[in-house]
């Protein structure tokens, strides 16, 4: 550590020691500048450093009474406060004397307390107050009944943002905001407001954003917004409105009417908001839209009509004047059944969502004059086929979602004009095959999701060679093959996928054969991650539940208890070169095999769509891995052969001994005469002796049946022996 680092460290230590922080508080440097103190209590005996600019008092025991004293913040040396936060306490009242001397205070958060009373002039002498939050306090009586002393709720010439959400409000008196002339943002959401006085917003000359969502509004007075010409954002979602006719807000740009009770939209609905750019009508009960509805909203850019009861076909002139439309959502209208074409030109429309609309067929002109579409969602429909030119009108599309339809096949020219396509979702269909040539034009494809189909193989040999020669899918990084009908996968199908980073092959009936081993080794060497993909983008990807690497997966396929194959017999690939570990789903349905037959031409017929032929020379470098079954077989065969030879020799040996035991001992019946002792007879070794028989007399049992040829020879030998004795 050099001198400079030491000095910096000492400076930090000195700065920390220089901050006076009471025992019941924690003080630290704030990200926005200055220092922040977080305390569980506040009393006049505490002393804070002059550097404290942000104070937070939170989560005080609800059984412990919490209140502020007069001049409390100046007494504890907090005159430099910029932000004051007191939340989740039992604080009940707020008075001006609490904030004396806090001239630099800008943001005050008093949410989720028990405040029932606030003096109208509490913040009158705070010149730069900008934000005040009183959310989550029971202020229903304070804001609904007139103040006997003042004709306003609060006085502040500088306040620009006021949050009164979730304050149990039911009725708002008309003079409530009379002394908040510079208010820009007003939040009245999540209350029980049923009606609004006409003059409530009369004095809010600069108001720009009003949030009235999640209330009980059933109708609005036509002149409610007559005095707020600058309002640009109005949120009326989650109420009980069924009409917006005759409401005028000429400067309004964003209008949210979702989660209401609209049933029809007429030409008068939007006449009072000609400048609206963002319009949300989702989650209503809209069944009919007049073709004049959006004519007055000529500047409309974002339109959401999802989750309604629209019945198709929609009028061709419905969006004729909305040439600036950028996003259009008609999703979850199951009775729409038909989409387009529409009159007009949609040159800037980049997102179109018509998912779950019951669409059974699309015409070639459905997307005409929409050549700027970047994201197209057709999922959850009833499409059974697609014309090969269906996407020719949207050459700039980058994402197409065709998941959860009834597609059985795809034409190889389907994406011939979509060279910018990066994400393709085909899950939940009935596809048996994906033509390799279909992917040639879409060289920039990064994500391919074909899970939950009926694929039994990826590509045959010709297709694989074609893909490799043309570098097809060379930019693909994510491939989802989950829940198909694969029994085996060949690494050669993936060799053209040189950028592959994540692969999901779970929920397939994979067999334990040599191909899966080769594939695992290739995946490991290529640093491909086994990952369960559960969404359609990185944002939608669900949490992983357990870690599983390719080696673990191979063990699951081949080394279950019921497998015949021993866990010691397969050379598992190692993963020591992996630096990351990404979770993988444990739900595998594998069908193990009891042998590893070497691939042959008969196993994978050439040019057949159901198979994939791989020449034996392709596996020449990998066949060593599977030499282990040959050696035991050879050893066992050799052992069996040796056993047979030994048994044969033993039988022959025993047969020979039995033969000799039946005859006198002699060299050969075909050679010279037997040698005899002088004056004693033949030289014969008895097999056994009896005690009563003299040793000199040889014993040959007569009850032994000898072969006739042997008997003749013995007779001849005896005769010759007798003659010899006579000669002697």
Describe the 3D structure.
The protein is mostly loops and 728 residues long. It has five domains: 1-115, Leucine-rich repeat, LRR (right-handed beta-alpha superhelix); 130-240, Leucine-rich repeat, LRR (right-handed beta-alpha superhelix); 257-397, Ribonuclease Inhibitor (Leucine-rich repeat, LRR (right-handed beta-alpha superhelix)), CATH 3.80.10.10; 430-628, Leucine-rich repeat, LRR (right-handed beta-alpha superhelix), CATH 3.80.10; 662-727, no CATH class. It is 15% helix and 12% strand. It has eight helices and 28 strands. It has helices spanning 3-18, 72-75, 140-144, 461-469, 514-525, 550-558, 630-661, 708-727, and strands at residues 25-29, 35-39, 52-58, 83-87, 93-94, 107-109, 117-118, 131-133, 161-163, 185-187, 209-211, 233-235, 254-256, 264-265, 278-280, 288-289, 302-304, 327-329, 351-353, 375-377, 399-401, 423-425, 447-449, 478-480, 502-504, 529-530, 676-677, 681-682. The protein has a 22-stranded mixed β-sheet, with no helix packed on it. Strands 5-7 form a two-stranded parallel sheet. It is flat and about 130 Å long. Mean pLDDT is 80; it is low at 533-547, 561-626, 659-707 and 721-728.
SS content category? little secondary structure
**Would you state the CATH class of the largest domain?**
Alpha Beta
Unreliable spans: 533-547, 561-626, 659-707, 721-728
Number of helices: 8
What is the count of structural domains?
5
Strands, total number: 28
The CATH architecture designation of the largest domain is Alpha-Beta Horseshoe
